[in-house]
Known about the structure:
Helix content: 10-25%
Bound molecules: 2-acetamido-2-deoxy-beta-D-glucopyranose
CATH class of the largest domain: Alpha Beta
Largest sheet: 8 strands, mixed
Shape: globular
Amino acid sequence: MLKLGLLGGLSVIALFFFYSQLGDNFGVIPFHHRHHKHKPKNAREIVAHCKQLQTRVGPTDDILRRSVSDRFEEGTKPVLIKRAKIWTGRKNGTEIIDGDILLDKGLIKSVGHLDVASDLVSSYRGRLQVVDAKGAWITPGIVDIHSHIGNAPSPILSGADDVDSTKGTIEPWLRSLDGLNTHDESYPLSISGGVTTALVLPGSENAIGGQAYVIKLRETSERSPSSMLLEPPYHINSSFPNPNLPRRWRHMKHACGETPSAAHSATRMDTTWAFREAYNQAKKAKDDQDSFCSQVLADNWKGLGDFPEALQWEALVDVLRGRVKVNVHCYESVDLDALVRLSNEFKFPIAAFHHASEAYLVPDLVKSSYGKTPAVALFATGGRYKREAYRASEFAPRILAQHGITVLMKSDHPLLDSRHLLYEAQQAFYYGLPYNLALASVITNSAEVMGMGHRIGYVKEGYDADLVIWDSHPLALGATPKQVFIDGIPQFGHAFVTEKPDNFQKLPRVPNFGKEADRTVQYEGLPPLEPPKTPLEKVTVFLNVKSVVQPNKEGLASKELHTSPDGTTSPGIVIIERGKVVCAGDPAVCGLDGLRQRTNVDVVDLEGGSIVPGLTTYGSPVGLEEINQEPSTNDGTILDPLTDSIPALLGGDTAIIRASDGLEFGSRDALLAYRFGVTSAITAPKSPGFLGGLGVHFSTRASHRLDEGAVIQDITAVHVAVRHFGKPSVSTQIAALRRLLQGKVEGAMGHYFGKVRSGEIPLVVEAHSADIIATLIILKKEIEVDTRRAIKLTITGASEAHLIATEIAEAGVGVILTPPIPMLWEDRRILPGPPLTNQSAIEALLSHGVVLGIGCQQIWQARNLAFNVAWAAIEAGGRISKEQAIALGSWNVERLLGVERDPDFLELVATRGGDLGDFGAKVVAVVSPTRQEVDLLEEGA
Ligand SMILES: *[C@@H]1O[C@H](CO)[C@@H](O)[C@H](O)[C@H]1NC(C)=O
Ligand SMILES: *[C@@H]1O[C@H](CO)[C@@H](O)[C@H](O)[C@H]1NC(C)=O
Ligand SMILES: *[C@@H]1O[C@H](CO)[C@@H](O)[C@H](O)[C@H]1NC(C)=O
């Protein structure tokens, strides 16, 4: 909207003249000398430009009085949403309104009780689409403060990664907009998770990576990147934006620490100097402009040349003028400190520190940044993947909030799939961030921090019509949009969501992690995680146990303890002696009273919780790595016979490596997994190529290999990967596999493939494309005809397995799924699940009778398995039983990956306040039949 006030009497003709001149002069405001005195012909324009430099950025006051959104798409129908439970984002995220919302012209026109007979509503005369929300929760659209969507598009194809420039460390002139791919398959997927807006940042390999842009994720009728932008600064198409237009926020990416330093073979010292040098340049340019302008504004034109413009530095000059939201990737105290000093030296505010894994340890440092205290944008549980992230904590959001620092959760998409950004907020909530701040962390506060809080992030009259109708309370695990509106446009024709029961419609209850959070700060982010030792002769009694799931020879069987014959509920008890359940059921029958007299008894009230088998993680290098990006903490990668020459000492090409030989115990990720119910792990040697080697099954609790029960099974299965990139062709990989399966290879490798041939141990193949999986099925049959023995084949990853679910089931092939995201061409045909498709990939495979497990990729994800399992069950809308869900993360995983253990020796996990994976539940104990002990995890915590 033009704001002519500044220039008073300037005529339209003069404006036109001004612009036609600017169009021909890139980089300088021309100085047109008049014949007399020093005043140039275009003095008025120069004055306007100088005055503009003093104006403040931000929306004009009339933004909320607009009657049509600048993003309104012609033909969008007005919508009346009735009977909603609206989280408005107002009042610090605590306001909830039962009411109706009217959307028109891309805007929220009205919120409250809208009588259909009212003047406003009846003025639409039947043009209105009425949606009955039936009491469903509505929030503003989710706003992602940190995304690379479009710049690192899915699927990634060669040359299409436009995230990091390699041309220099200081590049404030670059713009993420220039690489924004409109065909990213993530747009509809992220919308299906409720995300409507994202700040697309350049990557972190440069100290100053360039300018970032806010986009809305929906398709536009123009189909261009520019048309996706939300309130773009006028600089996108003009070196000298019209000085009369209101200033809009600009956005900039900075990064400090490891990433920019490593990318430019520099040290932190070099990177910080690069910042200072750049800011000094920008400051000089700004000072030149300011002194030029102070002369202009004093009407003293003597000796003035051209306006001292510097196109390269103009964005950084705008940072110094406080017109740019600076978003800084910065992890450790050492880096935060450098950036805080920089902000004070050059006097510019920082909008947010991103990643900032140590911010919770140095809140005062964060607050001493120049100007307004920066927000801190975090992952919920992602951490420890490099030194900088080693002290990351799930308790950081709550701790920062306690210090009054604004907490945001972010995706860094595609690092985390932004479709599940709300899950980050849910986890932050689970670990103690108050619910109002948890929701605000991905909606209202992220909108505010990106400078868009005047039009998005709230359900409020005059705001953009970006809304999500949820199928549950938004902080309940598995919350899924029933509909998403962006600029008033409904994003789904039909949403596949099943009605969720009442208990999903309430704010979930969460456990108390207060002590754990305190300890985390006390130990500077590294609280001891080893469970305390318990004396062998102790008896443990669990009170108020709702159910017990125990393994038998066939699988998992659930026993409800809480219903007595007369129908009244009386929770049961479970007694553990020497790591075994000796009684489970009625307190009187189990002899509770007698036990209470004894002294060597630990009594643990589970408050309606349950006891289930410990989970088993697969897919990440847990056990072989402590810090992913630190080679000195890792086992390393193995050589691949298809591409590397293998030393003769190893047996040449026929060598096969055992993961068990490289195990490192006691990593923080392993112990965290243990504390959250993941008591064992199966890991294969880390391989970048075709051959993986021999997997191992081990305890996530053990502190070294000689610990009792540390290695549960030394050799589990043979692992290979058949994939599309950076290797000999897929056909070559299959040819190699065929020879191996035909028994044509000697040595150690021949020995283990012989076991695969005879069906003794499984062959585990990472494969994603349906075509590769189909080829593997044919190969399996080919060999079986020859050997007349069934080969055990398990496919992992398996993004496209659902396309041939029938054939996979028929062939008796098992599958371990990792959560699908269409990262590469070979896994682009995912089955996304609700709300986009009726079935999730998990359900599709289960419904065909495929034996299925759930895996992960990153070590830090291992601890989240219980949530993944619970989520799968929620998504299936009750069509998967509790035992089936747990089996997806335990029993099935073990069977599919070659674990053979006596069901009596499975660890059991006790949760308080709910079932494993419930937001109300906390893992409080692990029972080990092998060690004949019970770990009480809260002791010492
Ligand atoms: C916002 O809510 C948080 C958490 O509930 C609370 O600690 C904080 O004081 C509130 N802020 C305001 C301004 O009310
Ligand atoms: C330049 O971009 C602005 C939005 O920032 C838009 O309103 C205007 O139409 C664009 N001008 C041209 C000539 O494309
Ligand atoms: C979704 O799938 C279930 C079976 O898994 C079926 O009963 C139901 O009818 C399907 N719903 C729709 C809308 O297709």
